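Data availability (excerpt). The following record was deposited with the supplementary files.
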Amino acid sequence: MGEKGDISAWQNTGPVGQPVWKKLGTIAVGVDGGQRQNVRLANVNNDRRADYLIMNPSTGALDAWLNMPDLEVVGPNVRLADIDGDGRDDYLYMDAVGGIRAWLNRGFVDHPDWVSIGLIAPGVPGGSRERIRLADMDGDGRDDYLVVADNGAVTAWFNKGNIDHPAWNSAGVIAVGVDGATLNNVRFADIDGDGRADYCVIWNDGSVSAWLNKGDARSPTWENQGKIAVGVDGSARDNVFLEDLNGDGKADYLMVTDKGAIYGWLNTGTDPKNIVWKNQGMVASGVSGATRQNIRFGNLDADGKFDYWLIDDAVGAMNVWVNSCV
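Predicted structure:
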């Protein structure tokens, strides 16, 4: 630390007991009136990151500067997932290595209150934003932390701990991948309505193959259902989504246009190997500023049906249209 409160840092990147120091350079340039003896580093907002404080030596009053993650591109890094199991999706920011900061969805439908609980997952070795998925694999209502490999293999950490701050229990590799599976075409969705996400592959033509999540909650076995959807006119891997449109617990087939309009097919029938997809036509016409990339599907109000979220790419702000499908 310099005389004026500027700070240089070296990050410990080595294994336990074998530190390796990576130079980060100057991480704080100091502030007007700052002096080394008045600077303190402490976590003031419960996100597990040290913040920068200046103490008035006469009164003991503190000024604080929060240590914020790299948020220069906010919108694309926003995720929605139910972290606390209350049926309402929470607001997550995912950093480049798969670390997650969370704001719990509290309040009311017409006026949600977002409660920050700070860093809930620091990331894992080999993790990256592109590899991380969040889905409920064990049926407890809380989304788990998944890492997808290039060949579609899945490593899982189950979401445990208390309601305000999850702890992650490693389950190791829970799926070894299937022929043709890749990082880009694997999806997780509850096809049979048992509360557990199944392993799906969306092929280039928009068709879908599924493996049902069976067996022990901590060690799933995968029951091959073959191709459960053949695709539709205009469908492709990047414009097909599997989300619950009508709140029956089963993922439906959605095709999203470049401007955010949505066409839906309901998952009907009782045999996952022979699903009858009931065409609903256009279920959302899109809204001003919407694109396929800046909309999200998440449940704001705990009714089991996905709502339509529009994310502001610049700041991560949200507008939501509640799903009134019956």
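Summary of structural features: The chain has a mean pLDDT of 89.
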